[in-house]
């Protein structure tokens, strides 16, 4: 089964408010950038664009939107409310009844993609310098 179908199944299996929140987050992530790609890793939904961007998982009492490089992202709307002690990741936990700040979620996704792209360029330049020094 491909990643999109596995994500469809995960949303259907969650059902209820968690399935609805998961489906809404999926739409927002996909709408944030036309080049983002759905993937399936660690038995959960993951989105990639020039590296891993974010993952969404459904839990008993919440839905988690995890940004792999969240600690390096500006969060002017204060969305990050979980994993704040982690070295690199940050997450937004949604509980039943929470409102989703759609523009802010899209902005975080775009910022994560921009960080991946910047990191990719810096790594290429560093690799060129190392290669030319040999």
Q: What does this protein look like?
A:
With 134 residues, the protein is of the alpha+beta class. It has one domain (3-133): Aspartate Aminotransferase, domain 1. The protein is built from 3 helices and 5 strands. The protein has helices at residues 3-14, 16-32, 102-133, and strands spanning 37-41, 44-48, 52-58, 63-67, 90-94. A 5-stranded antiparallel β-sheet has the order 1-2-3-4-5. Strand 3 and strand 4 form a beta hairpin. Helix 1 (3-14) packs antiparallel against helix 2 (16-32). The longest helix is centred in the C-terminal third of the chain and has 32 residues, at 102-133. The protein is globular, with a radius of gyration of 16 Å. The mean pLDDT is 93.
Helices and strands in order, then pairings?
Layout (H helix, E strand, L loop, with lengths): L2 H12 L1 H17 L4 E5 L2 E5 L3 E7 L4 E5 L22 E5 L7 H32 L1
Antiparallel strand pairs: 1-2, 2-3, 3-4, 4-5
Helix pairs in contact: 1-2, 2-3
Features:
single chain; 134 residues; alpha+beta; Aspartate Aminotransferase, domain 1; five-stranded antiparallel sheet; 3 helices; globular
Please provide the count of β strands.
5
Q: What is the chain-wise order of helices and strands?
A: HHEEEEEH
Walk across the major sheet and give the strand order. 1-2-3-4-5
Label the structural class: alpha+beta
What number is the mean pLDDT?
Answer: 93
Profile the largest sheet: 5 strands, antiparallel
Helix content: 40-55%
CATH topology: Aspartate Aminotransferase, domain 1
Q: For the record, what CATH class applies?
A: Alpha Beta
């Amino acid at each position: 089964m491909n990643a999109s179908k596995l994500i469809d199944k995960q949303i259907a299996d969650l059902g209820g408010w968690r399935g609805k929140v998961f489906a809404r987050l999926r739409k927002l992530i996909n709408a944030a950038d036309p080049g983002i790609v759905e993937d399936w890793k660690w038995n959960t939904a993951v989105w990639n664009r020039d590296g891993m961007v974010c993952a969404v998982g459904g839990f008993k009492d919440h839905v988690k939107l995890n940004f792999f490089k969240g600690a390096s992202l500006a969060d002017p709307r204060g969305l990050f409310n979980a994993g704040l002690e982690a070295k690199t990741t940050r997450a937004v936990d949604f509980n039943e009844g929470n409102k989703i700040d759609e523009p802010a979620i899209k902005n975080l996704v775009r910022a994560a993609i921009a960080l991946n792209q910047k990191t990719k360029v810096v790594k290429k330049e560093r690799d060129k310098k190392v290669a030319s020094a040999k």
